[in-house]
């Protein structure tokens, strides 16, 4: 049925009558006569070519066709009422489309996102995770949290914090490691950034190995850490993003040496004017960063 020709009066009369199983009580709710409600429902039934009620001596019995129609109408009218109430109260919901590198999403954002929702109950956040490769314009993102130097063409970037990398592995593998040089003989899991392990070995004063015993290459630190959890090798990842694993003892950080190859940044396209929802999220995450550093 074409939207502009929807029989709204008949649908409203039917929905009220179906809830009350009475034309009389529906008329009282809708502030019209019982005859008007009955006529509107009859007109709707004629248009649909199906009976929506069985008329009984003491009321109405809804038919199978009426049962199929009722939930859709009730939900639609309820949602319209809720939206109108919010508009009247100046509380229109806003959408915020947020892209987040997966490690940050799981390690920092999700455990704290309920705080943002409590402070801003009328902002609906749509989170999409990525492996740090994101096209904000193509994906329709308002904001993106990513890892790097903060230099992305056409993008305004707000630095959040550094995320130093260090070897992480299971306790069983950690027991075999006495010094950083022991890692040369270990299976090293790595991301698509091929120079990370070389940089870490240099920071740990380990002479460059003729050949690093490399394992699987991952495009996601989350997948790499899952492999580490399963004992497939040693990951080079930010301990701050896996604090729950470290606290539980599932993962160990065998050496204190870390390297910093970038920071997490909150970014938006310079061509994208900030909305109220974008400003609210930016203020919230900045506040959380400030409180954490105190």
From TrEMBL:
Keywords: Activator, DNA-binding, Transcription, Transcription regulation
All copies of domain HTH lysR-type, residue ranges: 6-63
InterPro entries linked: AmpR_PBP2 (IPR037420), LysR-type_TF_proteobact-type (IPR058163), LysR_HTH_N (IPR000847), LysR_subst-bd (IPR005119), WH-like_DNA-bd_sf (IPR036388), WH_DNA-bd_sf (IPR036390)
Protein family according to the UniProt entry: Belongs to the LysR transcriptional regulatory family.
Record protein name field: LysR family transcriptional regulator
TM ranges: none
Top-level lineage group: Bacteria
Entries under Gene3D superfamilies matching the protein: Periplasmic binding protein-like II, Winged helix-like DNA-binding domain superfamily/Winged helix DNA-binding domain
Pfam families: HTH_1, LysR_substrate
Organism: Rhizobium ruizarguesonis
PROSITE patterns: HTH_LYSR
Coiled-coil intervals: none
């Amino acid at each position: 049925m074409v939207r502009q020709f929807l029989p709204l009066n008949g649908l409203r009369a039917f929905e009220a009558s179906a809830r009350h199983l009475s034309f009389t009580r529906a008329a009282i709710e809708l502030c019209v006569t019982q005859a008007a409600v009955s006529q509107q429902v009859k007109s709707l039934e004629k248009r649909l070519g199906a009976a929506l009620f069985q008329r009984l001596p003491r009321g109405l019995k809804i038919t199978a066709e009426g049962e199929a129609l009722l939930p859709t109408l009730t939900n639609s009218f309820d949602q319209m009422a809720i939206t109108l109430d919010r508009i009247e109260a100046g509380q229109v919901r806003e959408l915020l489309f947020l892209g987040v590198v997966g490690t940050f999403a799981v390690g920092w954002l999700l455990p704290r996102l309920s705080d943002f929702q409590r402070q801003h109950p009328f902002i609906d956040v749509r989170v999409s995770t990525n492996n740090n490769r994101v096209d904000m314009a193509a994906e329709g993102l308002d904001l993106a949290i990513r890892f790097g130097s903060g230099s992305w063409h056409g993008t305004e970037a707000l630095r959040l914090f550094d995320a130093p990398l260090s070897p992480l592995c299971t306790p069983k593998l950690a027991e075999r490691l006495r010094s950083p040089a022991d890692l040369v003989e270990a299976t090293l899991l790595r991301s698509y950034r091929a120079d990370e392990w070389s940089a870490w070995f240099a920071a740990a004063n380990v002479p460059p190995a003729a050949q690093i015993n490399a394992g699987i290459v991952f495009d996601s630190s989350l997948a790499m850490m899952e492999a580490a959890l399963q004992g497939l090798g040693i990951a080079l990842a930010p301990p701050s993003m896996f604090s729950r694993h470290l606290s539980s003892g599932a993962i160990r950080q065998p050496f204190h040496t870390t390297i910093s190859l970038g920071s997490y940044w909150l970014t938006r396209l310079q061509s994208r004017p900030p909305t109220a929802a974008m400003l609210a999220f930016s203020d919230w995450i900045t506040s959380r960063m400030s409180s954490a550093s105190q």
